[in-house]
Amino acid sequence: MNRRSAARALLYPTAALVGLFSVGPFLWMVLTAIKPQHEISTKEPVFWPSEVVLERFASLFGGDFSRYLFNSFLVAAATVVIGVTIAALAGYALARFDLPMKRYLLLVMLSVQMFPLVVLIIPMFMVMRSLDLLDTYFALIISYLAFTTPLATWILRGFFISIPRELEEAAMVDGATRMGAIVRVIMPLAGPGIAATSILVFISAWNEFIFALTFINDETLRTLPVALNSLLGRATADWGTIMAGSVLFTLPIVIFFLLVHRRMTEGMISGAVKG
Amino acid sequence: MTTRLPQETHRRDAMRAAVRLAPLRRRIGRRRFDDKILPWLLLGPALVVTLGLILFPVIRTGWLSFTDAGLSSLVTGEFEFVGLQNYSGVLSDGHLRGVFVTTVVFGLACVAGTMVVGLGVALLLDQTFRGRRLLGILVLLPWAVPQVAAGVTWRWMFNDQYGVVNWLLVKGGLTGFEGFSWFNDRITAFVAIGIVVVWQSFPFVAISLLAGFRTIEEDLIDAARVDGAGWFQRLRYITLPMLKPLVLVLIIISTIWDFKIFDQIYVMTKGGPARSTEVLSIAVWREAFTKLDFGPASALAILMFFVLAAVTLIYVRLFREEVS
User: Fold this and answer.
1) Under an 8 A CB cutoff, do A209 and B69 touch?
2) Angle CA(B230)–CA(B233)–CA(B234) in degrees, nearest 5?
3) Distance CA A85, CA B44 (A)
4) Contacting B residues, span 78-117, partner chain A, CB-CB under 8 Å
């Protein structure tokens, strides 16, 4: 039993180490963002700031950052509304009807997860350019639909399959049309699934970097990740401001994420296994 | 009115039947709509997205890879078929050939790191101790942080003069790290990027494996324990073999992620110093959007796709053989 108790003694230090590794960088980001300027670039890191400085957030909001925040939010929200609507309808159809080529369609949708985005980006860029869509929100919303809709469809299909067929059949016996049954019976039941999927789509649109970097040149249309990256490009990096920007960019996602992580894990695993 | 003409009765019955049948017939018409047309209406928009935004670009990239599309074709919209020229150009370029090796080595190293850390954390979370629930939530955090934010934050932590990583290493006795520049050297730059990648992807692996542990029947583990199997033996001979399908899926998902890494590298090194930390996705992007050589860039993108597909296939093969 000696070895056993030795192992148990190691348990708590290991757990502390894992916890620190997981949370440390995030804490360091927040800490740097709220430190007084002279406590940021020090030989000995300052772990307990002498005062909390929130001016960086104020000046970010006062400057262009509120615009970037708005851009990111608008693009992500539009992607959610359009993408999840499309995905909910298709997910229902794929859950309930026997359609020719259904297998292949599902396979293509799943394999999108495998495509490197750079495989899609070149022709998209050329088409966007010829349609004069570069430097518009549309360029981002349209390209974000490409990688969010398939996964959302796949996940929502799973939710619809879990809702018993009898429910909408009962509604149809009572005189509802199929569409009526979908809107009044099925969609409300799938509500939690749709909410979780929406958050997932929002997160991936909010975080997206390559398309935003490539399709947007106009500084006023930039989204947060691109703006953050351009802060790094300055000759002397102002780490306090950069970390404050990172906090603004990260915090909404962390909150959303903690709400849906369970469904996200399930969705990814089941999707991968069934494929 | 005791007798009724048979004909009249007949007609009345027919009329009654017709009245009764009308809604039925309407319902049959509706049924046909519901079963034959509605599914396609529901599926339509998703089909447009799949065909227009996925299949079209992929096929188009394939086609572009055989052409000389470049800056001038953006203006004129014209380009010419050049056969395999782009492919031979890409494959004869020493730097780009190196990028293939870099991508595979870096990708596999990240997958290995992710699986090891993920398994370790899963085993830790499988023990009973106080604060386990809290730790289970805390380890999810790195997964939630956007990749660009993670890259930026770790770049600050790996800062040569004021970075907290160097400070920790020096405190731990490794005085060589005093003012050490991680991003001036290819290997250490990749180590730094790899740490960020593992930091972001181990939570998914850990949580999935933990869920997998829970599916194994306690009896089996207990039986092994009674037979004298130690903790490591139980892990090696029971838990992991039983979770082989899950482990395979996790390795494949990790591979797909780690071969596509773009954001973290772009933010942390931009592929530098001197293009030495370029992986395929960065190289494709640079060929396409800083050099505007769409033809060669497309060829590189297609090759990248095949590398990813090949690695995935090899995994599936290996595992299948081992199972049988």
Assistant:
1) no
2) 85
3) 12
4) none
Give ∠ CA A232-A236-A238 in degrees, rounded to 5.
Answer: 65
How is residue A244 written in tokens?
């404050």
Residue of A3, A8, A17, A22 to mutate when probing chain B, most B C-beta within 10 A? A22
Give the Cα separation of A45 and A32 in Å (integer).
10
Which residues sit opposite B81 in a β-bridge? B67
Size of interface A-B (CB pairs under 8 A): 258
Closest of B195, B192, B190 to residue B102, by C-alpha: B190
Per DSSP, B158 falls in state T
Interface of A with B in 103-142 (CB under 8 A): 105, 108-109, 112-126, 129-130, 142
Q: Convert the pLDDT of each residue in A114-144 to its tens digit.
A: 778 888 999 999 999 989 999 999 999 999 9
The model's pTM = 0.86
Written as tens digits, the pLDDT of chain B (324 aa) is: 445 555 666 666 666 666 666 666 666 666 677 777 888 899 999 999 988 888 899 899 999 999 988 888 777 778 889 989 999 999 999 999 999 999 999 999 999 999 999 999 999 998 888 888 889 889 989 988 999 999 999 999 999 889 999 999 999 988 888 889 999 999 999 999 999 999 999 999 999 899 888 888 888 888 888 888 888 888 888 888 888 888 888 898 899 889 999 999 999 998 878 889 999 999 999 999 999 999 999 999 999 999 888 888 888 787 776 655
- The backbone torsions φ and ψ at residue A128, rounded to the nearest 5 degrees and listed phi first, read -60, -40
Contact status, residue B255 vs residue B315, Cβ threshold 8 Å: yes
A273: which chain B residues are within 8 Å (Cβ-Cβ)? 245, 249
Q: Locate all alpha helices (DSSP H) within B158-279, ordered by sequence.
A: 164-171, 186-215, 218-226, 231-234, 240-242, 244-259, 263-268
Type of residue numbered B314: I
Return d(Cα A107, Cα A157) in angstroms, integer: 13
| Beta-carbon count within 10 A of A207 CB | 23
The secondary structure of residue B176, as a DSSP letter, is G
Instruction: Say if residue B45 is preceded by a cis peptide, omega within 30 of 0.
Output: no
The DSSP string of chain A is -HHHHHHHHHHHHHHHHHHHHHHHHHHHHHHHHHS-GGGTS-SS--SS-SS---HHHHHHHHTTHHHHHHHHHHHHHHHHHHHHHHHHHHHHHHHH---TTHHHHHHHHHHGGGS-HHHHHHHHHHHHHHTT-TTSHHHHHHHHHHHHHHHHHHHHHHHHHHS-HHHHHHHHHTT--HHHHIIIIIHHHTHHHHHHHHHHHHHHHHH--HHHHHH---GGG--HHHHHHHHHTSSS--HHHHHHHHHHHHHHHHHHHHHHHHHHHHHHHHHHHH-
